[in-house]
Amino acid sequence: IQRKSKGRFEALKQALSDKDMEQPGLMEAVVGAVADGSPEFADFAADKVLPAYGSKVVSHLVASFNPYGKMPDVRRLRALKHIDRNEAMRLARQAIHGRHKNLVSEALSTLAGSLTDESLLLQQALIRKGSLRRDAYCALRGIQSTVVVETVCKAFQAGVLEASDAMHGTLDAPYTKFIVDTLQGLTRGHPDL
After folding, report:
1. Whole-model pTM above 0.85?
2. What's the Cα-to-Cα distance from 137 to each of 46, 77, 84, 111, 128, rounded to whole Å?
3. pLDDT (tens digit per residue) in 165-178
4. Alpha carbon of 27 to those of 48, 52, 107: distances in Å?
5. Which partner from 12, 31, 77, 165 sits 20 to 30 angstroms from 192, CA to CA?
6. Cα–Cα distance between 4 and 37 in angstroms, integer?
7. Would you call 189 exposed, middle or buried from its count of C-beta atoms within 10 A (0-12, 13-18, 19+)?
8. How many beta carbons lie within 10 A of that of residue 11, not counting itself?
9. How far from 35 is each of 32, 64, 87, 192, CA to CA, in Å?
């Protein structure tokens, strides 16, 4: 797996299908594979193989994670989301301040819907631009908070395209009801709103 041989992808798929993940050194090699030059191989390692190890691989992923890193760290965070959501959220709170677009996007996705991270996500929606702003508004979806509803409504009124793109066609009935009820409460006694 560590060498650039033609059969390494097949060997890894075979080990996964045979549930033969306990081969000596295989776990360490798979953790390293997220930085492989072949995106297909690295994604397969992160999305399919690392989650198969479960909690045994968490400490390895955390130790090698760089919150200001690049694609290998995106893959580490993505793998952690499948294995240990709390640890992934802890690392995402660090990575959200980074500069690598894909890592910040993955961090926003990891924190999506977290009421605990409401203020951090609101801050990101205000300071980010383009697709990261859209990702921040997407992460706010589902948070039943008056502050979030007010922020999203202000963004709509200001014509923030990323806010409308993020919310378009994605609101479920209970959340839509919450938004309508909140808006009715906010506008009660204010006929000009």
Report:
1. no
2. 26, 20, 24, 11, 10
3. 777 665 666 666 77
4. 13, 10, 24
5. 165
6. 9
7. exposed
8. 13
9. 6, 11, 20, 56
Query: Per residue, what are the HEC states of the chain?
Result: CCCCCCCHHHHHHHHHHCCCCCCCCHHHHHHHHCCCCCHHHHHHHHHHHHHHHHHHHHHHHHHHCCCCCCHHHHHHHHHHHHHCHHHHHHHHHHHCCCCCHHHHHHHHHHHCCCHHHHHHHHHHHHHCCHHHHHHHHHHHCCCCCHHHHHHHHHHHHCCCHHHHHHHCCCCCHHHHHHHHHHHHHHHCCCCCC
- Residue 131 tokens read as 């697709």
CB atoms within 10 A of CB 180: 11
